[in-house]
Amino acid sequence: MNQFQICFLLFIIGLFGFGQTPDLLRLEHTTIPENKTGIRTTRSRAVINVPFKIKETNYLVIGAEYNRYDFRIGVPFPFETRTFERLHIVDVNLGYTFKWNEEWRFIGAIQPRLASNFIVGIENNDFRMNLAGVMMKQKKDIDKPFSLVIGLSYNSATGLPFPLPILNYNVRFHPNWSYTVGIPRFDFKYHSNNEKHIINMASFLDGYFINLQNELLLPNDQVGTAVSLSALVISTGYQYKFTKEISLYAVMGYSVIQEGLIRNGNRAYILNNDGNIYLRTGFKIGIF
């Protein structure tokens, strides 16, 4: 198994929470400025993944991810907002891969998650479990190198009692150009001749589902027990590579579809459904 394949195992682990993290280390900050709904959001993110060689073609990956969301609310709401001004997600990443046959490799991953405002320690409703199983095929030593990943994932935070598809097809169709088609991301990249500079145009999903330990009293005698966000972002980005593995990056985009909700099993109260500017910067150490 080569470095490219290990990186794809990390990529599969990163699919669970809408994000994609094919890296050994990632430090990232995201800002969604205040819009007319009066909510400004920032996210701080740290990811670490470590691959271990078990056999000649078998690898185990162990890692962790932490996300902290901070909200600044500039307009009054008809309920107490301090309970969700700071939210946390803590993931443990466990993945395993082996060669299925000469063409395909199997990758399985488990991601236990705690997602909460952690007002009173840890409760049962803070816990979530994400699972995935995929098959991967890749060809490197050809004129147009490509990789294909297909499979299924189950994310307990979606509320859907069935697995969802994973699809990722990446091809370097020209020495300076590549694209990715898939779920949950599409992108189109320009690579400079020295591979130091990458310009990226992409669309991707982002979001969260987080338990609220102290229930919110909402209008119409409803009670809020969780907060969620789902967003479709269109973006352009720049990446500078100090080495093949180490880089800085910046992303500027717009959430063309966005829905922030207070939930009580279903939709209870709409916090934010207006599109907004999306800004992200980060540092990462990858495998390739």
Commentary on this structure:
- This protein is mainly beta and 288 residues long.
- It has one helix spanning 3-14; strands spanning 25-32, 39-53, 59-73, 86-99, 105-116, 127-139, 146-155, 164-174, 177-183, 185-191, 197-218, 222-241, 246-263, 267-272, 277-285.
- A hairpin with a 4-residue loop joins β12 (222-241) and β13 (246-263).
- Mean pLDDT is 86; it is low at 16-20.
SS content category = mainly beta
Strand proportion, as a percent range, falls in: over 45%
The helix fraction, in percent, is under 10%
Order of helices and strands: HEEEEEEEEEEEEEEE
Number of DSSP helical runs:
1
Mean residue pLDDT: 86
How many beta strands in the DSSP annotation? 15
Shape: globular
Q: For the record, give the distance between the C-alpha atoms at the N and C termini, rounded to a whole number.
A: 14 Å
Widest β-sheet, arrangement of strands: 1-2-3-4-5-6-7-8-9-10-11-12-13-15
CA radius of gyration: 20 Å
Quick recap:
With 288 residues, the protein is mainly beta. The chain has one helix and 15 strands, in the order H-E-E-E-E-E-E-E-E-E-E-E-E-E-E-E.
Write the layout of secondary structure elements.
Blueprint: H1 3-14, E1 25-32, E2 39-53, E3 59-73, E4 86-99, E5 105-116, E6 127-139, E7 146-155, E8 164-174, E9 177-183, E10 185-191, E11 197-218, E12 222-241, E13 246-263, E14 267-272, E15 277-285
Antiparallel strand pairs: 1-2, 1-15, 2-3, 3-4, 4-5, 5-6, 6-7, 7-8, 8-9, 9-10, 10-11, 11-12, 12-13, 13-14, 13-15
